[in-house]
Amino acid sequence: MNRNEAGQVFLRIILGLTFFIHGVSKFQGGIANTAGFFDSLGIPGFMAYVVAFIELVGGLALIVGFGTRIVSILFVVIMLGAIFTAKLPAGFLGNGQMAGYELDLALLAMSVYLACANRSLFSLDNKLFNKEGK
User: Fold this and answer.
1) Are the C-beta atoms of 116 and 7 separated by less than 8 Å?
2) pLDDT grade, residue 131 (50/70/90)?
3) pTM (2 decimals)?
4) Which pick of 5, 45, 108, 129 has the fewest CB atoms within 10 Å?
5) Where do transmembrane segments lie in this chain (predicted)?
């Protein structure tokens, strides 16, 4: 494994863990509260369940390296939605009342990278779908 592959594995695991914890947090904090927040932004409340499920299951999938490209694309969509519907008005660093979009932008960049990257050597995708038999 070279340094780029090691970095990719590290990035994938950290991104997966971050989204997994955010998904858990949405359910533990009361998904109805998150649905109410979505409604206040003009987003249908049921989307809170969809987002929380994608974060939870997608986070686990990224940790083990399963469906990395698809999950990363879903995370890109979630981050773009978060930035443009909730965070953009607060600015990059926030305004004291609401967090800015700097973390969302970093998570977006990580997701875009993983959506474009080759399969990692240490991933379930590589073990299941490697046609070269490595």
Assistant:
1) no
2) low
3) 0.90
4) 129
5) 9-25, 45-66, 73-93, 105-124
